[in-house]
Give the backbone structure.
Amino acid sequence: MDTQSQVVDRLRAAFRAGTTMPEQFRRTQLTKLMSMVKDNEQLILDALHKDLAKPKFEAVLSEVDIVINELHYAIDNLSSWLKPEYVSKNLATKLDDCFVQRQPLGVVLIIGPWNYPVQLILIPLVAAIAAGNCALIKPSEVSAATDSLIAELIPKYLSQDCYAVVHGGADETKALLQNRFDHILYTGSQTVARSILQAASIHLTPVTLELGGKCPCIIYGKIDITVAARRLAWAKFFNAGQSCVAPDYVLCSPANRDALLPALRKILEDFYGKDPQTCPDFSRIVSPRHWTRLMELLGRSSGKVVLGGESSQEDKYIAPTVMVDVAEDDALMQEEIFGPILPILTVESLEKGIEFINRQEKPLALYAFSDESSVVNTVLENTSSGGFCSNDGILHMTLPSLPFGGVGFSGWGSYHGRWGFEAFSHRRAVMLRGWALERLNGLRYPPYTENKLSWLRWSASPKSCSLM
Amino acid sequence: MYRMSREQLVVQRARKSFQTGRTKPLEFRIHQLKSLLRFISERRRDIADAVKKDLGKSEHGTELFETLGLEGEIKLAVEKLAEWAAPRPVEKNLLTISDEVYVQPEPLGVVLIIGAWNYPWAVTLQPLVGAIAAGNGAIIKPSEVSSHSAKVMEELLPQYLDKDLYPVVTGGVPETQELLKQRFDHIFYTGSSTVGKLVMEAAARHLTPVTLELGGKSPCYIDKNCDIAIACRRITWGKFVNCGQTCIAPDYILCEPSIQSRVVEEINKNVKEFYTDNPKTFEDYGRIINQRHFKRVMALMEGSTIAVGGDSDESQCYIAPTVLKDVTRESRVMKEEIFGPLLPIITVSGVDEAIQFINEREKPLVVYVFSHNNKLIKRVIAETSSGALLANDCLVHFTVSALPFGGVGNSGMGCYHGRHSFDQLSHLRSCLIKQLKMEGVNSMRYPPHTAKKLGWARFFLLKQVDVCRLRRMALLTMFAGLAAFVVQRFLR
């Protein structure tokens, strides 16, 4: 069994040999990855069910189809992404070729989390392959069944020289990071992200950090509360709230809250029946440790449970739970919840709600529900977040054309679609000058004179090329 | 009693000012940019004097290499700001066909710009143009090594730009370290790879993203079949501008042994033509920035054969334009980025060996190749990596603002110039604007989940659709139908 360093060396040798450069090679690998997902859909669903009790519906959409979608997108667009991008020039460089060439970076490391263990490791891999890199992927050991499955399947379908899977927990990851990589994409927590950045700084390795935060959901103004409640509940309780872009908490007026609660009660019953624990369409918490964390949060909270609240330790089950009378300094507001607990906080006005949001760290996603577009615009213009979605949740990250990433503590960089390709590429400026017009170059050589300078000023300005 | 350091206070004030939202309106940003432009034209003399004292550069040299580019960047930003800051619509899918889907550039907050001493105005203020345009506040920390420029910047810039939002903080290592303890929303650093690592490490504490414009040894390959006279002319210019203290200067030459003497001869000829027989007395030839770097560069000559120049004067920090020949991999001069007026020539058997030589080393900021053979140039493009590649000239890619200017690997991360500066110092926020209508369409995604719903959802929910193509197809179908109707009705 190769050590980690040996694996990295093997990938680097393959990259140096130019194996991943040809477009055809990348396309073939992407096609094989597509086969891997399609051929093994049932195995993937089984593993996800083992790890998270993930309902088939959720798994198919959020782990299988979304990956296939990205693969199609990359395969269809790869040729155009690889074309040199010609840029505008000034008069002095009019006769030259100026373009941007996309180059692979080398050997990249992808570290995945446990909540969408297939999607969040394979979509970055799609981007890394498309960009022509070799890749080492480290799935999360917390989602153990999926970790094993990925480690088994990848070498069966993809080139073993160019792509490898490594296992391990915190210690193994720390050791892995001592190797030099040309890019690291990490999805997970802020704390771990800091140590990854420290390790990356030693080698000047660029990173993409997909972190978390508390995604606020502000509900204000005139609103169809039933539809809003339904979409909110869907986004919140998908994967039992264990989504980095799940609405973490709600901010609304007392009146909205009073209308929201009965709507939520009915919708939760429509979704999961009277006893969600018996409903196959509701997930479980990933591990006993996280279950305990959530139960402790509930215990320390000063809020009141108005919906749900039931739990079962052996089953790692926590019911879809809604809480009210939660204040800004409540235990539930001190960390990202990442579970099926929805606190509802009340604010007196939209301005107060926006101020509240701006007192917290910039989140990965921000949601505003309202029938009034002025409300949505006010929230959009006065806040910052990785992404923003009005009147729905999660969906903005399902579009490959939108960059998926955070800002501030919620992350650095982005991916999906072309953005992923760019994240794993170097945009190299290329300029091919001719040999003629050496006379014109004479303007720039010493001795420097005022006359030469004024000609240069004119020729170097972007405007002057409109004369041509 | 706990007292805040000067650096803490400055950053806090900038942040408070940013939080009032003053930098959001484009008019404010344009006003600041225009003031910066006025600063450069009104204070031309002060800037030129400072650079002369720092680097021995002539006034024309300063204008050519410091302020001309800067003025161009400001004018471009003013002209294009509305376009750059506007929402950028993106491709939709079937599900979002009636929604607004776009990317919105937003300011990051307060950025830190750490400048370098070699082009103290250009590399400190060009990032500032991007910071202002993107709507940020910015702490400007010029290099203390170019002390006269730093002083002028500290005294005069606040007379033109908003004092709270764009303060200049001067100082050496302790002040920089204190600054780096503060929290910023982005750090833009230009300088050495060694310090770049420290900046990134400091930024890690606050999860602050960085742009690092570093250095490296930029190789220059001369194909033996090219016009050696013109090649050497351009290389001489590129190398000895600012006394070789340019991050994108050709660091060393790679060529076949058969042309080495010719290369030496041509460079010698051009040195005389550009800088006269006595560059020491010539106004347009500069100086090494300080004693420490003078000693460092002089030491690099050790063990190599001097083919051109070689003389020096420590009291003036003067080193003549110098060419070293028959240099080997092990020579001292090949151990670090030269950043001085020494041009080593290393002989290789051809482009194969040159490519191998380049790839054995860290990725540089630029790879230069001089050749008439387009196939050869294409090979170098395909088989090497670097921040940029420039064929048949030196330095000038810097002036094309549409080209991203930055490094890769050890030579840096991120890029800037033109619109790239704006994007680098903005947050590109994904926006999906939906209505609460058309809820029927959503029903397939809600529990309880059924096989039928899943089938529909698989088809409908994630399918990417080329909306333009759909529209065109629809139009085409419509016209076809119309044409068929016309034929039937009127042309029977």
Remarks:
- The radius of gyration of chain B is 28 Å.
- Chain B has a mean pLDDT of 93.
- DSSP finds 17 helices and 17 strands in chain B.
- Chain B touches chain A through 106 residues (CB under 8 Å).
